[in-house]
Write a sequence for this structure.
């Protein structure tokens, strides 16, 4: 059984306060995340090993965007998101 059978996957946008490294201006940016939430029950046809893996599984989200464009009209340069984690576990 594969890991994706344990989760429901959605795409969400969340706002984060980030600073452009080129111009130094802070702004609110919408960052796209792939959110994988643990299903309420183990999938059908799961054996004991799969049920043990399901019990250890946690809901998490993975950052989808790697670069953003500066919100400052004078700058508008793309910058990498390196201050934000690429993987975050969710508290259910």
């Amino acid at each position: 059984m594969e890991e994706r059978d344990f989760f429901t996957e959605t795409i969400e946008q969340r706002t984060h306060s980030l600073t452009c490294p080129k111009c130094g201006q802070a702004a609110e940016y919408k960052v796209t995340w792939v959110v994988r939430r643990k299903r309420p029950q183990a999938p059908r046809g799961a054996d004991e090993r799969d049920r043990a893996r399901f019990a250890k599984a946690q809901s998490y989200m993975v950052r989808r965007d790697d670069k953003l464009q500066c919100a400052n009209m004078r700058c508008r340069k793309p910058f990498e998101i390196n201050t934000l984690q690429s993987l975050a576990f969710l508290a259910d």
